[in-house]
Write a structure and sequence with these properties.
The chain has 350 residues and is of the alpha/beta class. The strands form four sheets. Strands 3, 4, 5, 8, 9, 16 and 17 form a seven-stranded mixed beta sheet that branches. Strands 12-11-10-13-14-15 form a six-stranded parallel beta sheet, with helices on one face. Strands 1-2 form a two-stranded antiparallel ribbon. α4 packs across α5 and α4 crosses α10. It contains eleven helices and 17 strands.
């Protein structure tokens, strides 16, 4: 029998979220049914529900930072049992056959991964609905374990913000002896600072004003650079091995590239709504690289959670009730959150 789930959905583009009833499938042989305790609120939830990134599917139940407990398992499930603390991130499935899937990088699935919402299951017909919901049914292959002792509410944003920053920091060599800059101190950036410090790098926060200097230091950054200060930017030219750019607004990539040393890398994880121009000489002059990164595969996401648990890396959050989600979205549009909203799903009542 299907499992009814009260949820919140956007009925159409830019419409307020409202209560929405849906049915989660009964667990198949390799599925787990998860009672969602907390769901993080990502800026991409707004972008997709507002169709900032193109046409979307409605009704839309957002949410791809889900944590909770297993309440039922299929007959062949071997990884989890009832009561386990688990999480589900941005993906629910993939083809599992292509080169990317075989390499454990399901996010690059050639056939297209089934995203947690605003997408389709692998049958190409069944819409996916995300974590602004009481429960969800997911194949065990796309479920990760939340380490014991890690608070579920502060772990939820790691399913997106954590893996989005951990994956490129690891891939591009953040570590002891490396100078890493994090551009933007928001939902992604504040986690990126903590992860880079835990990896052993020397970390600088780059921001447009002095207002976040104290926060940057509290998060573990050893230095702070104001991008609107020409003298400071000139003095920092050629300083960094790696810049993690988390900024989702239009900004000057060329001045940021000038901060890289020879063979340095600027990796984009923020997604501005407009294209960002790049001057070729900003790259050519010192053999610099401009790269991009998405999330990570399921194995790397589990690796990230284990790393964060070991090093005490968590998100700074403000918990909100489900009924207040529209106000939270309005505040998010104004960057009025420090640093991530998380919905307490216990507040979702019929």
């Amino acid at each position: 029998m299907p499992h009814p789930a009260l949820s919140y959905a956007a009925p159409s583009a830019k419409a307020p979220l409202a209560p929405f009833k849906l049915d989660r499938r009964a667990p198949g042989t390799t599925d787990v049914l998860i009672e969602i305790a907390y769901c993080g609120v990502c800026h991409s939830d707004l972008h997709q529900a507002r169709e900032d990134w193109g046409p979307a599917l409605f009704p839309m139940v957002p949410g791809h930072e889900m944590v909770g407990h297993v309440t039922a398992v299929g007959a062949q499930v071997g990884k989890f049992k009832v009561g386990d603390r688990v999480g589900v991130g941005c993906m629910l499935d993939s083809c599992r056959r292509c080169e990317s899937c075989a390499a454990g990088e399901e996010q690059f699935c050639s056939a297209g991964a089934s995203m947690s919402y605003n997408g389709y299951e692998q049958d190409g017909k069944t819409m996916t609905f995300g974590g602004y919901s009481q429960r969800i049914t997911v194949d065990e292959a796309f479920v990760v374990r939340v380490p014991e002792g890690m608070p579920l509410d502060r772990a939820a944003p790691l399913l997106c913000a954590g893996i989005t920053t951990y994956s490129p920091l690891k891939r591009f060599g953040a570590g002891p002896g490396k100078r890493v800059a994090v551009m933007g101190l928001g939902g992604l950036g504040h986690v990126g600072v903590r992860v880079a410090r835990a990896m052993g790098a020397e970390v600088t926060v780059i921001s447009t004003s002095q207002s976040k200097r104290a926060d940057a230091a509290e998060l573990g950054a050893q230095d702070f650079l104001v991008s609107t200060d020409p003298k400071a930017m000139k003095a920092a030219a050629g300083r960094f091995d790696l810049i993690l750019d988390t900024v989702s607004a239009v900004h000057d990539l060329n001045s940021a590239l000038n901060l890289l040393r020879t063979d340095g890398t600027l990796v984009l994880v923020g997604v501005p709504e407009q294209a960002l121009p790049v001057q070729p000489f900003a790259l050519i002059g010192r053999r610099r690289r401009l790269a991009g990164s998405l999330i990570g595969g399921i194995a790397e996401t589990q690796e990230m959670l284990d790393f964060c648990a070991e090093h005490g890396v968590l998100a700074d959050i403000e918990t909100v009730a489900m009924a207040d989600i529209n106000q939270a979205w309005e505040r998010l549009l104004k960057n009025d959150v420090r640093y991530r909203f998380v919905i307490d799903m216990a507040t979702l009542k019929a």
